[in-house]
Each structure stands twice: as C-alpha cells, then as structure tokens.
Amino acid sequence: MSELHDIMLLHRGRVLRLKCHKDAIYGCWIKNTFWERDFLFKTLEVLTPESVVIDCGANVGNHAIFWTGYVKKVYSFEGNPRTAGVLRDNVERNNLNVVVVAAPVGNGERVHMRDTSYLGSDFLPDKSGEMVSVCLSDLEFEKIDLLKLDVEGAEIRTLLGARKLIERDSPIVVVEVHTTRHVESDEVLDVVRTFDFDWKKKVWLKNIGAQLIWKDGKYES
C-alpha cells in the first residue's frame, strides 16, 4: 500500500484538506482540479442543488467531493476497507454532505475482494467470499437523480440489484465500461433495456478515461 499524502484543494470557495495516494487523482488535486473534470462538469447539466447522487466505486472521494459543491447529498459506496477509510476521513475532516458506506455493491451475493491496487479492487462472486455485496434496491433512499457505477466488473450485478430503485426514480445512470476486460457496453445496454424506464435518454456509458461513448440513445462518434 503506497503512502498517503496531504493535499489542500480549493473547491467552491472552501479549502478542503484531503488525503490521497500518488496516483491520477493526486496528480489532479495538486493542480487544484479533479480527475475526470470534463465528465463531472457534464453531469451538472442534469443536477441541481436539490439533487441526490449515488457514487458506487467512490475510491477516496474525487467524484463525491466535486458533487458536494453542487448537490444536496451524495451516497458513496466503496468496498475496499482501506480505501473506504481514507474516503471517510476526507469526508469527516471537511464536514461534507456525503454518506460513506464501506461495502461493495452488487446483487446481494457473497464476493471475494481482489485488491488490485490503491486505485481499486475487484469483487468476484464467491460462495465462500468474505463479504456480501449491497443490493441498492434493498436500501432506503430519497429520490435519486444520478447513479454512477465504476465497479470493476460488477456492473451487471449492480444494475440488477438497483433495478427497483432505477425504475422508481428514473435517474441518470452512468456506467464505466472497460472495452478490454469485464463487461462490454452492449451487455450493459442489453440489461438496462429490460428496465421500465427511459433507458435511451437516461443511460450514459463512459470509458476509463471519462469519455462518453453512449449518450442520448446512441454511440458517440
């Protein structure tokens, strides 16, 4: 596990005192900006000060910290206990409007955590796994306006576990897909098109570099 570094970040008129590993997020924060900045500003087109966001695969809080400056509340799910600890520390020391849940998301199955790096972890279905994934539809939320999934291969399981919530609130659903591993974008679309909501307008797919590859019912050129 690499060393944590203290960073001060100016955001929406506040100086935030944060901790982070030396990674892509760190490289942005020391320049007083955010990882996936262009994508994050794109989400502001559909968010308001009364919006509520669920951030699955929150890591140390890059996206959640950005959104706190613009929305009412963020629920951040992070399955890696060590990373979730850093996330919680970043939230609590700055009194941010973020609820941290230290658990992997999925469809209620047992999973085994494969700690790939400080950037993220895979949670693989395993009947003897040490953790149980959270089914989002089993939790009580106010109306959700945006659901973001960056869950390292658990995309389909998490979508199925969130089906009732998605059908209830019809949020924007942002899914990060990996074209060289895990699920492909077409597989995600095959699942969400069975849901009772306007998936063509509500589903955004992005790649690991935060480029939107599907939006408004079509692949981006």
Distance between the termini: 39 Å
Low-confidence stretches: none
Strand content: 25-35%
* Average residue-wise pLDDT: 93
**Multimerization status:** single chain
What topology, given as strand order, has the largest sheet?
5-4-3-9-10-11-12-13
What profile does the largest beta sheet have?
Answer: 8 strands, mixed
N-to-C order of helices and strands = EEHHEHEHEEEEEHHEHHEEE
Q: So how many helices?
A: 8
Essential attributes:
Rossmann fold, 221 residues, alpha/beta
Structural account:
Helix 5 runs parallel beside helix 7. The protein contains 8 helices and 13 strands. By secondary structure, it is an alpha/beta fold. The protein has a single domain, classed as 3-Layer(aba) Sandwich (Rossmann fold), CATH 3.40.50.150. A hairpin with a 2-residue loop joins strand 1 and strand 2. The model has no long low-confidence stretch (mean pLDDT 93). It starts with a strand and ends with a strand. The chain is 27% helix and 29% strand. It has an 8-stranded mixed beta sheet with strand order 5-4-3-9-10-11-12-13, sandwiched between helices. A 3-stranded antiparallel beta sheet has the order 7-6-8, with no helix packed on it. A two-stranded antiparallel ribbon has the order 1-2. The radius of gyration is 16 Å and the shape is globular. The longest helix has 13 residues, at 81-93.
